[in-house]
């Protein structure tokens, strides 16, 4: 299930000079309030957290690694590469994030390029972390939304893009066109 992430554990720990749980505690929990713990389950290293922490991670990603103006993850080039196709084989996949709005996509185990965006009813700028057992973090910069889904694996799907698209079908009728509040202080004219 988590092979790509688990394979990166050693690389990350070597780069940061500490184990992943220590890094999360000292660099993410202390600054963003994001909490959780990596637990070894068989061959996989799975991060367990709560919906609020998943949302905090989504907000951190949406803000390019900044938390309330404080840089947490400072590699801007990585964030740009994360939200664009990381290779030609599957244009709907960035650096460990699924990308919507591409002309085609591939799913694990299917060697056929499927036409259109990964989630046709989601904003085209959305990118998603779709993890073990159907845990989902959706980030949509254009709408300013971060949408989290936790629970059991839906419909036995390894990558629940169809299920995730259904979430957006429910959200679209209730998403406001704008969330801006008019500035009545007159300060915006200064």
State which percent range the strand residues make up: 15-25%
Overall helicity: 25-40%
How far apart the termini lie comes to 54 Å
Number of helices: 5
The shape, in one word, is globular
Strand order of the largest sheet: 5-8-9-10
Instruction: Calculate the mean pLDDT score and round it.
Output: 86
Which regions are unreliable across 5 or more consecutive residues at pLDDT < 50? none
Number of strands: 10
Determine Rg (CA atoms, Å).
18 Å
Class per helix and strand makeup: alpha+beta
What's the helix-strand series? HHEEHEEHEEEEEEH
Summarize the model shown.
With 190 residues, this protein is α+β, with helices and mostly antiparallel strands. It is 30% helix and 19% strand.
């Amino acid at each position: 299930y988590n092979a790509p992430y688990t394979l990166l554990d050693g690389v990350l720990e070597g780069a940061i000079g500490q184990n992943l749980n220590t890094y999360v505690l000292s660099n993410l929990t202390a600054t963003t309030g994001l909490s959780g713990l990596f637990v070894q389950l068989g061959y996989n290293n799975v991060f367990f957290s709560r919906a609020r922490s998943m949302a905090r991670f989504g907000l951190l990603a949406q803000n390019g690694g900044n938390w309330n103006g404080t840089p947490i993850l400072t590699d801007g080039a990585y964030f740009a590469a994360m939200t664009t196709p990381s290779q030609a084989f599957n244009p709907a996949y960035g650096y460990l994030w699924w990308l919507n709005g591409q002309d085609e996509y591939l799913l694990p185990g299917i060697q056929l390029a499927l036409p259109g965006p990964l989630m046709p009813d989601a904003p085209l700028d959305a990118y998603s972390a779709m993890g073990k057992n159907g845990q989902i973090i959706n980030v949509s910069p254009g709408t300013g939304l971060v949408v989290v889904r936790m629970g059991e694996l839906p419909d036995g799907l390894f990558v629940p893009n169809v299920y995730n698209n259904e979430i957006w079908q429910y959200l679209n009728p209730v998403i406001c066109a704008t969330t801006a509040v008019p500035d009545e202080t007159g300060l915006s004219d200064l």
